[in-house]
Write a structure and sequence with these properties.
Strand content: 15-25%
Largest sheet: 6 strands, antiparallel
Low-confidence stretches: none
Number of domains: 2
Number of strands: 6
Shape: elongated
């Protein structure tokens, strides 16, 4: 995964988390619809290519197929236009959400090597980048934050955004983290690693800090 892809996914997810619950649902539905339309469009294009090849070989039955596909294509364009209009209606809320998380977004570029790219009073994000590729990331959080309800929610949201950014299933990761934390005793400095979609999360504890190491 490139750093750019990670940064884009991270910042988009962060903005999405700042939307109201109703707008989050709307945004998710729009993403699903856009993905479905893209899949249907690709299917129609493939069928058109096949039909044209048949027609070129003298199979006149392909003419009817092309006409049918043309109708479907026009219907798809209509659906796409409606989707674009709905997306536009969500734009003001998304712009406001993006502004509200501006101080938490990741920078557009990251230097080669291991560097802390985001520092806030609640956490730090450190990345290991080589020639534009994200080799690993670390979320660093004060353990005291996990004992404060408000800060704990902030941590959960940041962890979720990071997990989504690297392509993991955030719900699975957070649930497993919670289960592992509940079983951890005070003397442990590590807990069982978490795996999701080819991403590994390794947890390390010092007396004051939680380190979440992410590798893919």
């Amino acid at each position: 995964m490139t750093y750019t892809k990670f940064q884009t996914a991270y910042n988009q997810t962060l903005a999405g988390e700042a939307l109201s619950k109703s707008n989050q649902t709307k945004a998710t539905n729009l993403q699903d619809q856009a993905a479905a339309l893209k899949k249907q469009s690709a299917s129609i294009q493939a069928q058109v290519k096949t039909a044209k090849a048949k027609l070129a070989k003298g199979d006149t039955s392909a003419t009817a197929t092309l006409q049918d596909l043309a109708t479907k294509g026009e219907a798809l364009k209509t659906q796409a236009a409606k989707l674009k209009a709905t997306q536009a209606s969500l734009a003001p809320a998304l712009k406001k959400a993006q502004a509200s998380v501006k101080n938490d977004t990741l920078p557009a570029t990251a230097k080669n090597g291991i560097h802390t790219i985001k520092t806030t009073k609640h956490y730090k994000v450190r990345t290991n980048v080589y020639n534009g590729k994200l080799m690993g990331a670390t979320l660093i959080v004060p353990i005291s934050a996990l004992k404060n309800d408000t800060q704990a929610k902030k941590f959960a949201m940041t962890f979720s955004v990071l997990a989504t950014g690297v392509g993991a299933n955030a719900k699975h990761v957070l649930k497993t983290f919670s289960n592992n934390s509940n079983k951890k005793n005070s003397s442990q400095t590590t807990t069982e690693t978490i795996h999701s979609n080819g991403v590994t999360f390794s947890l390390g504890y010092s007396t004051s800090t939680l380190y979440i190491y992410v590798t893919k």
